[in-house]
Amino acid sequence: MPIDQAPIRRILVTGVGANPGFGLTRSLQRLGHKVIATDANPLAPGLLLPDTLPWVTPRADDPDYPTAIAELCHELAVDAVVAGIENDVPPLVAMLPELAAIDVRLWLPDAESVRVCIDKTEFHDVLTAHGIETPRTYRPQEIDQVAEGTELVVKPRRGQGAQGVHFCQTREHARVLCELVPDALVQERVHGQEFTADCLVDRTGRASVILRRRDLVKAGLSAVSTTFHDPTVRARVEQTLTAVRAAGLSCVQGFITAQGTVTITELNVRIAGGFALAEAAGADLVGQMVNGLFGQPVDHDRLTYHPAKTSPTTSRPWPSATPPRSP
Predict the structure, then answer these.
(1) d(CA 237, CA 240)
(2) Whether 109 contacts 117, CB under 8 Å
(3) Are 192 and 257 in contact (CB under 8 A)?
(4) What is the extent of the structural domain holding 259?
(5) Do 162 and 49 belong together in one domain?
(6) 317 contacts: CB under 8 Å, gap ≥ 6
(7) Are residues 182 and 98 in the same domain?
(8) pLDDT for 30-81, tens place per residue?
(9) Is the pLDDT of residue 315 over 50?
(10) pTM of the model
(11) 325 within domain boundaries
C-alpha cells in the first residue's frame, strides 16, 4: 500500500433511508471504504445503493436493536459504526463498551451530551445558561405565559426531520396542537436568514465549522444552500458546540435575524442532510471524520471551504436494486 493511501475500512452506516445516511454512504464509498448500509425500513433508498452490503435492522427503540447491531458487526468484521439518524445515537452510546470489546469504533459525545441535544427543552435550558440566544421555549402547561400575538411553533420535544412541526398565531391554537403532537413543546417563532453549520469537533475540542445559508427549505429540509463566511455566526456556533460538549460530526441550525442577532435553534448529533455542499465547497468533512474516528489527527486545514458555493443538496439518483438482508 502506498504510504499516502489511507486504509480501506468496513463502516456500518445506520439510517440510510434519510438524506444524511444516504449521502454519508456515498461519500464513504467515494473515499474507497466498504459500507454496510442499514435501515429499519426494507424500502429505504440507501439499501439499493450499488456496492454496499445492505441489511435491514430493527428500529432503534426495539429491544433487539443492540443485539442485532452487535451480531452484524461481529459477522461482517465491521471496523466502525456511524449513525445517519439521531434515533440510533442513544442506543449506540449505550453500546460503546460492547462494541469496543470487539474492536468496533464509534465517535459520539457522552450520554448526557446526547440527551441534551436530542431533548429540545434541555437544549434550550443549556444554551440559555450559557448566554446563547435561542428561541423562548415553553412546556404545554406554560402556554399562558406566552405574550398575546406571539407567533409560535409547536413541535415534538424529541422530534427529528421537521416531523410534527406546526406553526400557529394564538395560544389557543398552540394548546390544541399540544394535545395532538406527542410530548410537545412550544417555541417562539424566529424569522430571518436560516442557516446550517456542518461541524466536526476533534478529540482536543477544536472545531471546524462550514456555514451554509438555507436558501430553499421544503418540509423542514434544505433543498438549496449557499456557503458563506461570517465570524459572528461561526463564533456563536462554536459556543454552542462547547456548551453541549459536542464531539465528532454534528450540525447546528439557526437564524440571523433582521437585527443581526444569531439565534440557535437546534444541534443534531449526526451529519447534516445537505453536507454534500460543504464537500463541494472544498471541505473534506467525511474524510477528516474518518481520521478522527480511527484515532488519527483531524487536519483542520482540509476543512476550509469556499464561500458563495450554491448547489441543490438533496438530489438522490435512483440506484440499481440490490435486495437487502436481515441479520
Answers:
(1) 5
(2) yes
(3) yes
(4) 191-312
(5) no
(6) none
(7) no
(8) 999 999 999 999 999 999 999 999 999 999 999 999 999 999 999 999 999 9
(9) no
(10) 0.90
(11) no
